[in-house]
Amino acid sequence: MLGWFQMLEHLLCWCNCHAVLCVSPLSVSAKRERLKEVTDSNWEEILTGEWMIEFYAPWCPACQQLQPVWKDFAEWGEDMGVNIAKVDVTEQPGLSGRFIITSLPTIYHCKDGVFRRYQGARTKDDFLSFVDEQKWKAVDPVSSWFGPSSFLPEGFVLITLSSLWHYELHDRSSSGSPVWGSYVIFGLATLFSGLALGLLLVFIADFVFPSRRFSAPDYHQSQAAYEALRRRVAGNRQEDEDDEEED
């Protein structure tokens, strides 16, 4: 009889262990999903709703210290109705140019497409109070000129991606083709892109700030008056010459 109880006990233990092994990966994955990853393909999702986004790099010591705090903060995101996300700038260089990231780690708060840069202490309690007490309202939003959807960050994205393309091209050429070939291509690309940007800026400046000589409403009248004055002066000069000849 005792043997049956021991067998039943072992069977229950095996079932419990099997259930734990089956459920644990799901719970771990559920926790990981709370900290969302923003990429070049889904970054437009942060334009709706409320977000806290961290830009980091794996090699950055300050970023490494922030990671456990940021993960703990992400556990509270669902309760507060805030999406907590992160961006690895080494994997998403285009986003580092789009958001003009100049230091790491950089944290942004976004509410319905309006971005504000977080400058407070990097603790979980400070993050929670910043969102829960709406302290972000006291922070000036990022100018629309430097927003991720404006044309200036788009230019930074192109510059970042073109530099990466040149780096890859140079790396390939060092293993096969001559190295000077990549520098020639990069120089020509820089020259033509500079000319194109210069012409574009000239057209924009001429359109926004037209010349006063052509924008004055009485331009044609002033031209006619100038021509009449010039004829009068020429006529007077001719009369003086005729008088001198008669004398």
Automatic annotation (TrEMBL):
GO terms classed as biological process: negative regulation of platelet aggregation
Transmembrane segments: 145-165, 185-209
Signal peptide limits: 1-19
Record membrane topology: Single-pass type I membrane protein
Domain Thioredoxin, residue spans: 26-136
Entry keywords, A to Z: Disulfide bond, Electron transport, Endoplasmic reticulum, Membrane, Phosphoprotein, Redox-active center, Signal, Transmembrane, Transmembrane helix, Transport
InterPro entries: Thioredoxin-like_sf, Thioredoxin_CS, Thioredoxin_domain, TMX_domain-containing
Gene3D superfamilies according to UniProt: Glutaredoxin (3.40.30.10)
GO cellular component, one term: extracellular region
Single annotated GO MF: disulfide oxidoreductase activity
Subcellular location: Endoplasmic reticulum membrane
Cross-referenced CDD domains: PDI_a_TMX (cd02994)
Record keyword Disulfide bond present: yes
PANTHER family: DUMPY: SHORTER THAN WILD-TYPE (PTHR46107), THIOREDOXIN-RELATED TRANSMEMBRANE PROTEIN 1 (PTHR46107:SF2)
Name this polypeptide is given: Thioredoxin-related transmembrane protein 1
Species this chain originates from: Tetraodon nigroviridis (Spotted green pufferfish)
Taxonomic lineage from the root: Eukaryota, Metazoa, Chordata, Craniata, Vertebrata
